[in-house]
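Hi all, long-time lurker, first post. I run a small reading group and we've been trying to get comfortable going from sequence to structure in the token notation. Rather than ask abstract questions, I figured I'd post a concrete chain and ask someone more experienced to write out its structure so we can walk through it together at our next meeting. Sequence below, copied exactly:
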Amino acid sequence: MRCLALADGLAVRGWQCTFGCNATAADVAPGLARHLVGIADDSGHPPLHNGDLQWDLAVVDHYGLDGAYESCLRAHCERIMVIDDLHNRSHDCDVLLDQTPGRQIADYQPLVPGHCRLLLGSAYALLRPEFAIARTAASDARGEARGVRRIFVAFGATDPFNLTRKALEGIALSGVDADVDVVLGQAAPHLDDVRERAERLPVRATVHVAPNNFVSLMATADIAFGAPGSMSWERCCLGIPSVVVAFAANQVEIAGALERVGAAIHLGWHEAVGSRQFAEVLVGLAGDTKTLIRMATAAVKVSDGRGVQRVVEVLAP
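-- Answer (accepted) --
Happy to help. Here is the structure in token form:
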């Protein structure tokens, strides 16, 4: 999704973008259809080239690839940009983007060539433009002492560990009376289970599958349950206090960074988190308006929703 936001930003400048991805990516992110799509080979590696096509720019966003793969791209493109947030392997690139708050130059300096330009921190978070548009009204609404009336639950398009169910069970246990919006993708493996659980919830709950009004749904929330992945910057842009659970290695450091700045509460690694932890944190926040306002204020400072414009200015001034 972050690459899709970047591709849309480049397309506004007249660029033609092609995605190299696996065959199921279009199911998870239907927006890829806006751009030409090339399917990965049997090894799972994106295609290096399309006939005689040469690229001005290659963007690599893949935790299983490193400088060895990127060096192979050199024969097919003018420049290489890498998106990463693990800083655990070397890269052969001209630009590197890491959206994690507080990321330091020293984290990547030993891992990239000397000429590489580092774009570090949440000011470069790659969000779709509608988040910046909705930002002011959404954050103003949460500046009021309104408690928790609406809860947004989204653990990514597929939610492979069914954290959504744990969150819904926690909401039921909490006794907090709030409307609940659940968002999942069509390819989510536990979609039917989540729908069944939402129907049995003692409060009003709606399951939205790949909704077109995703931003407006999120913008109305007083609190969000989700993963500390790319959606973190979307929640922050709208000033939403978040409760996060990590289920991937790259999410752990992001969760810690969000908690340190006061924008989120990290419940921990997914295997150690159950419905009771969701219930307890929800009860605490629902009865603590000052903390909600403080978290919303901290969140809205993390990302202003204009990261794509800043990155595009670097890539295509």
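A couple of things your group might point at:
The chain has 13 helices and twelve strands.
Residues 129-142 form the longest helix (14 residues).
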